[in-house]
Amino acid sequence: MHWTAEFLFWHFPQIQYKNPGVQMVMMKNLTPSPFIKCYFDDGESVLIDTWGKDRFQIYEHLNQVVGKSRATLEAEAVAKQKKQNEANFGSSYSRQCICEIPGQVPCSAYSVQAKEEFSKLFPKGKTSVLV
Predict the structure, then answer these.
(1) Which residue from 25, 47, 75, 107 lies 20 to 30 Å from 37 (Cα-Cα)?
(2) Which residues are in the Ribosomal protein/NADH dehydrogenase domain (predicted)?
């Protein structure tokens, strides 16, 4: 089996799975020398020669040419993890306040505090906690 055929057998399905928004097509035995052609959104295309390279070298070269850098992938993973954490709340998350979570104490801005709770903070005769 030729190295490009091994690359297509082992790595092509993985690349397709990891890039669901990208259309990928295999065209076999069109030319005597194997190549990979990549098309970009701006109309530019890149031709990658795979002659004499094994499947690992092809994969590494393809990753370097059209793939994202490791730092970019790590930054995207961290940003995705921060955004998806359900424990976060605030104006930029799905919950504005912690009181929206079931079982939490309601917001003091929207509910009246019970007299029993208020008397725990201010015992009889005291008007301030500091006194």
Answers:
(1) 75
(2) 2-69
